[in-house]
Design the sequence.
């Protein structure tokens, strides 16, 4: 009889251990399923379907943090292209600079005013000089806000008799602002400063 009781006790312990393992496994599976379901819902919310020509095209939305470096560099590039791409036409100069000033604070306006007072734009118009710019690279530090940047670019001044190239280096900071049609990236350049702007080559 004692042997039977011992066998029953042993069987009970086995069943108890099996039940604990089974319950634990069920809890783990349930938690895993909940996590995966949440991830699936989040992924589904990031999907966007666009109807084009009767066909549903799938697109994906991305947070600002995912694209901050790309958008910040493009903002800096766009500003420099507007500010430094000039033709010997006062209306063209005004239009381009006006677009640039939407992307920066008063430091850019101060540089524009200085150039205008020094007759820089008048010289472009009177000498029929076109100015083009190519942004070579933008160094960006997003570890500290506002984000600091340094822009390396090449300016080309095209005259009827020659073409001269200049190395341009500028620096400043980027602050987050609301997006708009005039400022689609939602950044504002602050404390913009020209570090270097010197002639490199002249072609006749």
Sequence:
């Amino acid at each position: 009889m004692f042997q039977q009781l011992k066998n029953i006790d042993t069987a009970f312990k086995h069943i108890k251990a099996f039940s604990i393992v089974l319950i634990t496994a069920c809890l783990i599976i349930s938690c895993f399923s909940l996590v995966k379901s949440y991830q699936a819902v989040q992924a589904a919310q990031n999907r966007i379907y666009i109807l084009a020509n009767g066909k549903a095209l799938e697109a994906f939305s991305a947070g600002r943090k995912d694209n901050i470096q790309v958008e910040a560099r493009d903002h800096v590039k766009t500003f420099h292209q507007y500010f430094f791409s000039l033709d010997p036409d006062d209306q063209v100069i005004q239009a381009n600079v006006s677009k640039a000033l939407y992307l920066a604070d008063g430091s850019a306006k101060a540089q524009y005013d200085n150039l205008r007072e020094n007759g820089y734009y008048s010289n472009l118009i009177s000498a029929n000089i076109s100015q083009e710019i190519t942004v070579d690279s933008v160094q960006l530090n997003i570890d500290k806000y506002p984000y600091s940047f340094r822009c390396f670019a090449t300016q080309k001044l095209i005259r009827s008799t020659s073409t001269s190239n200049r190395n341009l280096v500028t620096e400043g900071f980027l602050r987050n602002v609301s997006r708009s049609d005039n400022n689609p990236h939602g950044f504002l350049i602050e404390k913009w400063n020209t570090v270097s702007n010197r002639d490199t080559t002249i072609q006749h």
Observations:
- Strands lie at 47-52, 55-60, 130-141, 147-158, 163-176, 187-203.
